[in-house]
Here is the input.
Amino acid sequence: MLKIKLPSEIKKIKGLKAGDTILISGSIYTARDQAHKRLAEAIEKGRALPFALRGQVIYYCGPTPRPKGRIIGSCGPTTSSRMDAFTPVLLKAGIAGMIGKGRRAERVLEAIKRHRAAYFLAYAGCGALISGYVTKMELVAFGELGPEAIYRLEVRDLPLIVGIDTNGRSIYG
Here is the structure.
């Protein structure tokens, strides 16, 4: 299984193929529907973003409250199609990858291919298990959104499947 350290080894995603399994370590950012909407609006209006998007990986996740003694609560993937309306704008702004679950719209697949990004699948239904791969969590933006805020997560050996590779090949056919 290939290991990728983010963001320093993000270029390794170019060699991945749909269906490959990988382990990622390093920084990723959570963002769901409302955060995506705000990011896309900021880009379209030329406003400052809360973090630099270029070369980053966004995890479609809204962590649950943190239990006592834990870094994060359950943090499983959100259905990715909910972000499809905003994804082409974020890809154009430079994100290198996304983590979620489920199929993507055809226009998102084309944007992934055009911008040489990748779409990774996290194991659905395993939010409590996935939380064990998180070593640090920090609020970045939109704290008023609660679980839909943007958090920077440090992860160690988070297992993922390449759902759509940088050439636009998809495990969904």
Observations:
- Residues 5 and 47 are 30 Å apart (CA to CA).
- The chain has one domain: 2-164.
- Helices lie at 33-44, 87-92, 106-114, 127-131.
- The mean pLDDT is 96.
